[in-house]
Amino acid sequence: MSLLEVENLHTHFISRTLNDELRVAKGLNGVTFSLENGEIMGLVGETGAGKSLTAMSIMGLLSPPARIVDGSARFDGIELTNMKREELDQLRGNEITMIVQSPVSSLDPLKRIGRQLVRIQQVHQDISKAEAHQRAVEMLRTVGIPNPALRTRAWPHELSGGMAQRVLIAMALINSPRLVIADEPTTGLDVTVQAQILDLFLDLVRERGLSAIIITHDLGIVAHYCSKMAVMFAGRVVEQGPVRTVFKDARHPYTRALINSTPSRVARYGHVRSAGGAPPNLYDLPKGCHYRDRCEFSADICATIPPEVHLDSAHLASCHFSLNVPWAAEG
Amino acid sequence: MAEPVLSVEKLVKHFPGQTRGETVHAVNDVTFSLFPGETLGLVGESGSGKTTIGRCAIRLLEPTGGTIRFRGRDITHLPESQCRPLRGKIQIIFQDPYRALNPRMRVGRLISEMLMLHTALDAKGRRERSLELAERVRLNADLLSRFPNQLSGGQLQRVCIARAIASNPELIILDEPTSSLDLSVRASILELLQELQASTGAAMLFISHDLETVSFVSDRILVLYLGSIVESGPSKRVFEQPAHPYTQSLLSAHLPTDPEQPLQRHLLEGEVPGPINLPPGCPFEPRCPVAISECGLAMPEARLLNGEEHTAACIRIDDGSNTLPLQR
Hints:
The complex is a heterodimer of chains A (331) and B (328).
Chain A: E1 4-16, E2 22-35, E3 40-44, H1 51-59, E4 66-75, E5 78-79, H2 85-91, E6 96-99, H3 113-124, H4 129-142, H5 148-151, H6 161-173, E7 179-183, H7 191-207, E8 211-215, H8 219-225, E9 228-233, E10 236-242, H9 243-248, H10 253-260, H11 263-269, E11 309-310, E12 316-317
Parallel strand pairs in A: 3-8, 3-9, 6-7, 7-8
Antiparallel strand pairs in A: 1-2, 1-4, 4-5, 9-10, 10-12, 11-12
Chain B: E1 6-16, E2 23-34, E3 39-43, H1 50-57, E4 65-70, E5 73-74, H2 80-89, E6 90-93, H3 97-100, H4 107-118, H5 123-136, H6 153-165, E7 171-175, H7 183-200, E8 203-208, H8 211-217, E9 220-225, E10 228-234, H9 235-240, H10 245-253, E11 303-305, E12 310-312
Parallel strand pairs in B: 3-8, 3-9, 6-7, 7-8
Antiparallel strand pairs in B: 1-2, 1-4, 4-5, 9-10, 10-12, 11-12
């Protein structure tokens, strides 16, 4: 059994217009992937592809008008989508934790960071304040915060972006979770700081044998820190597989265009096969393959929903041409 | 050598700090020139002063010290009234295209506004020229009647580019023009910029923290750290043989988008210090793995490396001990 199994997950934003007509934005349209123990998966895709929405759906963080209309997400065999709030609260922050994008704004500005680290432990564990404080200091030391005992007295606004992100990592790991979801963990940090944070985070994840999902649009992070990747487009996973395999042998035209549009590849291979173009309208998605309007290879058959092609046990792509890619001849 | 379009000499820009008497040293003694048809990349982390330099060059900010010359003319302390006509010749493209455009004006008017300000065209001429500009930046003509909030980020950035080239500028400052765009859209914008440079011959000052992008578009690059130039040279050379320890670590922190390419890490400790109290010597000294006590005494002079206009400001170059040890 996989640690996390997401199957055919559909999350829609359902609202009504002033004329009382139903308006449905289809955020997720059948997301399927699984994550084994100890795996680190990179979830990539453009803005609006549903990366963060997938994470929020799994964590039960959706609020109206968003809701899960179909599909399932199982953590260690337990269904998450219909779980009660109280049960979910046992799991969140404890077994599954999350690191979000803007570190400073996701800390409580009115509480010292030590207090926040103690509180998250006391909510989930039967632990004395003194012991929790001791563990908070240890954890801050582990994430590389100098002078940790003193720093527990710091207010969030006194921390730099890099330091705040370290505190968030400490909060995410302090209850020894089994799965950590990091949503754009280094966006907004400087390049040299980004490298430190990623190295730290992944060393800790590997050391403790945790599983992680890293949501990012930086293919460099996926290439070097993840073992597995899933590419999302318009609310579906269009391709997934081991990182090296996908980079070397992409079988979905969107994956290929995405990988080929990084500046260094453009410089090396010349012309951009543009992956650009407007993202599909979530209120009115094209029938069949969602990528078809932007795809240079689209054909009549693309008006039907593409099958999920198993290229090998781990590598999957959802394109009518995945087995016989049109760009094979170009090399 | 041709006359430079832009020459910046000993540029200094200070801002008042948050508390009284504090000074933010944003740019300290920066000197460089930009020649016609050239793209110069300014690379650095946040707080390195790259945006401030760009804004001083188009005189959105008045420098504290030093001189800025545009085609030989001193524009350092030009009064605002005389800056206006100047900005037809120097244009700037910002990071966030949505915030750079008036949300209540239609795209067509946003483009022709520039023609109204900087050319003598009549209404009909402006309309024709706007269409022509839209076509040059590959913007569908029916988008001209839309409002900015109806366009995607990539399309909006094309509108900004059309506005920038409307007055046939000789210098275009690009302040992180692709940072807010999706990866897939980014490549096509970069391609468009290169194409336009070839056809207009405008010089470009390309400001970015993304090394991959900068190396792709620039002929020469300047690496900034805490408001000082630490290394400069032809971009290929700087990328292949970075001499300054900061450039080396900056390059090594970059993740190539190829899982097969091995990482060469020499990570830095700590973060960029604030620009309020600058270190007395080399700005990088507190974080530098190969720093010696002399580094903290005075700002090192730029040293010329094997000709080719490649310079780096580090005293450890003299005895060849500027190379950082590799980790992992």
